[in-house]
Design a protein that fits this description.
Blueprint: E1 12-19, H1 30-47, E2 50-56, E3 60-67, H2 72-91, E4 103-106, H3 109-121, H4 123-126, H5 141-145
Helix pairs in contact: 1-2
Length: 146
């Protein structure tokens, strides 16, 4: 049975995630991470999204997105599709990079926004990758903290 598409409406706020196929790493190196962020930035601009927080982990990513238009499915398909095309070309592979379709959960703005922003940027600490969020260069923490 296929998973239904997320609820979509103008102004929705989503916690979107996607994991590497078979839980494998989705970034081989910093160049892959930089390219993912560049592709993601293009999709954010084209889709008119607002990105409140993000974090790139080794085998998955977290995004906190606001969609003024009801276009989360189209944009996320572009994020994962363009990233897969780039990754396969760069590393001479074919096939899936991501495990199935992305997941996007609608977030209640008032009660959960701050908690979720903090959860997303603290992922590297919980994973034992760094001691402080400021040490991790692949999240929105530094930009948010100034």
């Amino acid at each position: 049975m296929t998973r239904s598409l997320p609820l979509a409406f103008p102004g929705a706020l989503y916690h979107a995630t996607s994991r590497g196929n078979a839980r494998a790493a989705i970034y081989a190196d910093d160049a892959d991470r930089e390219r993912f962020l560049a592709l993601f930035t293009q999709v954010v601009q084209r889709s008119h999204w607002l990105c409140h927080a993000y974090c790139l982990m080794d085998n998955h990513y977290h995004l906190l997105l606001e969609t003024p238009e009801s276009n989360v499915s189209h944009g996320m398909r572009q994020v994962n599709g363009l990233s897969t095309q780039y990754d396969n070309r760069r590393h001479g592979r074919v096939g899936h990079v991501f495990q199935g379709r992305y997941k996007a959960i609608v977030v209640e703005r008032d009660s959960y926004l701050f908690v979720l922003c903090r959860y997303i940027v603290l992922n590297p600490i919980r994973a034992g990758m760094v001691q402080t969020a400021q040490e991790y260069g692949w999240s929105s923490y530094r930009a948010t903290a100034g």
